[in-house]
Amino acid sequence: MPKKRSGGGLTATQQAAKFLGVSVLSGAVLAGIALPAFGALGLAAKGSVESFDELPANLKTPPLSQRTTILDAKGETLATVYSRDRTVVDLKDISPYMQKAIVAIEDSRFYEHGAVDLKGVLRALNKNAQSGGVAQGASTLTQQYVKNVFVEEAGDDPTKVAQAIQQTLGRKIRELKYAIQVEEELGKKKILENYLNITFFGQQAYGVEAASQRYFSKHAKDLTLPEAALLAGIVQSPSRYDPVNDEAEATKRRNVVLERMAEVGDVSRAQAEQAKKAPLGLKVTQPKNGCITAVQGASFFCKYVERVFKSDPVFGKTKEERAKVWNQGGLTIRTTLDPQAQKSVQDSLKDHVYKSDKVAAAATLVEPGTGKILAMGQSKPYGYGKNETEYNYSVNSAMGGSNFGFPTGSTFKPFVAAAALEEGRPVTQTYPAPYEMPYPSQVQTCSGKPWVNTGNAKLENEAESEVGPYALKKAMELSVNTYFVQMLADIGMCPVVKMTNALGVVQGNGDKVPEVPSSMTLGSTGLSPLTMASAYAAFASRGMYCTPVAIESITQTVGGEKKSLEVPKSTCSRAMSEKTADSINTLLSGVTDSGTGKQAGLSGRDNAGKTGTTDERKNAWFVGYTPNLSGAVWVGSATQKVKMTRITIGGVYHAQVYGGDTPGPIWRDAMTGALQGKEAPRFNMVDIPNPEKPRDENDKGNGNGNGNGNGNGNGDEGFIGGLIDGGTTTGNTTGGITLPDNLFQGQTNGGSNGSGGRGRG
Question: What does each C-alpha distance from 311 to 68, 319, 340 come to in angstroms?
Answer without folding.
Answer: 17, 7, 28
